[in-house]
C-alpha cells in the first residue's frame, strides 16, 4: 500500500484503474512528474479537471 501525496489516503498501486485514472497517470508522468504518487481518485479528478479547463489538452 502507498500513501497518496495529494489526499494522504492509502491506495493499492496495482489495482485496476479506470480510463480517467489512466489519463491522470499519463498527466502525472508527462506534466507534473509525480507518477506513482497519487491514488486513483486523485488521478481521475486531475484528468477530469484538465479535460474541462486546460485548452492544450481538451481540443
What is the gist of this entry?
With 59 residues, the chain is mainly alpha-helical. It has helices at 19-32, 40-53; strands at residues 2-3, 10-11. Helix 1 (19-32) crosses helix 2 (40-53).
Helix-strand makeup class: mainly alpha
Distance between the termini: 36 Å
As residue ranges, the low-confidence spans are none
| Percentage of residues in strands | 5-15%
What profile does the largest beta sheet have? 2 strands, antiparallel
Radius of gyration of CA atoms, rounded to a whole number? 11 Å
List the helices and strands and how they pair.
Elements (H helix, E strand, L loop, with lengths): L1 E2 L6 E2 L7 H14 L7 H14 L6
Antiparallel strand pairs: 1-2
Helix pairs in contact: 1-2
Features:
59 residues; mainly alpha; 2 helices; 47% helix; 7% strand; elongated
Describe the model:
The protein is mainly alpha-helical. The chain has two helices and two strands. The radius of gyration is 11 Å and the shape is elongated. The mean pLDDT is 93.
